[in-house]
Q: What sequence folds into this?
């Protein structure tokens, strides 16, 4: 299957297969006024299968959301048909207002104006704890 | 400006410094009698407590300062729906330092992010209680003369017991510390404490449900109460509350210089016959609590 290459924009590559749509929604890509292609289950030498997202425009990406959803993603910046930059995302040290603390005893359960902040406490285990009550994020 | 929200906010050196000041206060209280003159401590207790609130107030009064505050949420504006942040901003205008207890976990951290004056966490639900840990450390230092080379037995509710979790967190920073973790199966220490604190710091520990099995090895025996308020099910509480009752016969094999600690209040877990044993340190421990809080107030107010 062929998808047109992009002249100026971003290719989000090496997304774990089937996670493309989650990223599409998390980054609100549906609200952009340009073409966005989601390729799912593409063959990959490294991963077996992978998803790819192509965005036909240069935009600011929320790297924390990307890193949190899938830290193995690579980002390619395309300018005038050339890849000018390639970089890897990382697990964010802190994630804000992406997930909600489920501990009924946490202060965030009663004070709704507080931001929901989770802090990375163990990189290897991808463990995040609520900044306020230290409850571990459930998978 | 410094706050004390979690015992990890303090370095080992800072804890040593607090213990040194607390011991000096005990020795020469007159030197400290006016150190906090014209300073006010607000004790904001959104949840009832006797000893913690009174020891904070006694500490400030013995430093020559003033105290104000409330002892239950019903008598504060929280009952009208005021947020923690708003209460703190208002009270900060009437006081120089705030000690706060709140049933919601993380509330003192929220307060510290909004406050213009230092915040001391005086207990937030089942989460943290750093001044109890400082009290425990001062007690151990005074009774054993050291904070290293100790085998510490922790007995009772190791699952929900915040004092136990904080004490482990504090003690693993000293050398040659070993733990004997004594609890019924249902109240065992959480896995994350084992993995993220004990094992990460290469601390030797044994888990057992038998209080007498390792009694002869202990330098410290830290008893805890099974807290009714942590159970959703009354039946489980009734079954577990009297699982361990420390009495004279269980202490038969214990070392002659064992120190028995308990954060209090006690219900049934230590028989009153133990109170006269010279190894019973829990009432002294409550007194040490006032001195370490005096040292802490001085530190956070930056008064030498």
A:
């Amino acid at each position: 299957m062929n998808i047109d290459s992009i002249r100026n924009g971003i290719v989000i590559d090496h997304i774990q297969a089937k996670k493309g749509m989650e990223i599409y929604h998390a980054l609100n890509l549906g609200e952009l006024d340009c073409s966005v292609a989601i390729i799912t289950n593409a063959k990959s030498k490294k991963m077996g299968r992978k998803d790819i997202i192509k965005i036909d425009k240069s935009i600011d990406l929320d790297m924390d959301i990307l890193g949190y959803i899938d830290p193995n993603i690579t980002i390619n910046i395309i300018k005038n048909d050339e890849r000018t930059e390639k970089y890897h995302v990382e697990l964010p040290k802190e994630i804000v207002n992406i997930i909600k603390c489920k501990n009924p005893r946490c202060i965030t359960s009663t004070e709704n104006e507080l931001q929901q902040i989770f802090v990375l406490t163990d990189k290897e285990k991808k463990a995040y704890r609520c900044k306020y009550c230290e409850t571990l994020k459930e998978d | 400006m410094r706050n004390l929200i979690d015992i990890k906010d303090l370095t080992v050196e800072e804890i040593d410094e607090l213990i040194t000041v607390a011991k000096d206060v005990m020795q020469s209280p007159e030197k400290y009698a006016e150190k906090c003159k014209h300073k006010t401590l607000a004790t904001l207790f959104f949840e009832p407590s006797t000893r913690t609130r009174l020891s904070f107030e006694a500490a400030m009064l013995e430093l020559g300062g003033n105290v104000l505050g409330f002892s239950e949420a019903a008598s504060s504006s929280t009952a009208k729906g005021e947020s923690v942040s708003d209460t703190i901003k208002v009270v900060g205008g009437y006081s120089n330092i705030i000690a706060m207890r709140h049933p919601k976990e993380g509330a003192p951290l929220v307060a510290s992010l909004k406050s213009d004056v230092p915040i001391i966490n005086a207990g937030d639900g089942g989460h943290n209680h750093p001044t109890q840990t400082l009290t425990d450390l001062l007690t151990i230092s005074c009774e054993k003369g050291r904070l290293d080379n100790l085998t510490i037995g922790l007995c009772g509710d190791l699952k929900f017991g915040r004092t136990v979790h904080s004490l482990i967190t504090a003690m693993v920073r000293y050398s040659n510390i070993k733990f004997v973790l004594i609890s019924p199966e249902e109240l065992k220490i959480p896995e994350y404490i084992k993995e993220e604190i004990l094992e990460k710091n290469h601390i030797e520990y044994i888990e057992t449900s038998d209080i007498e099995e390792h009694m002869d090895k202990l330098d410290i025996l830290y008893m805890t109460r099974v807290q009714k308020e942590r159970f959703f099910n009354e039946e489980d509480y009734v079954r577990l509350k009297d699982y361990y009752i420390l009495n004279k016969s269980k202490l038969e094999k214990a070392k002659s210089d064992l120190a028995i600690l308990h954060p209090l209040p006690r219900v049934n877990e230590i028989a009153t016959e133990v109170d006269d044993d010279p190894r019973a340190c829990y009432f002294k421990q409550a007194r040490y609590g006032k001195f370490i809080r005096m040292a802490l107030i001085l530190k956070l107010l930056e008064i030498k």
Observations:
- The first strand of chain A starts at residue 9 and ends at 16.
- Residues 22 and 62 of chain A are 14 Å apart (CA to CA).
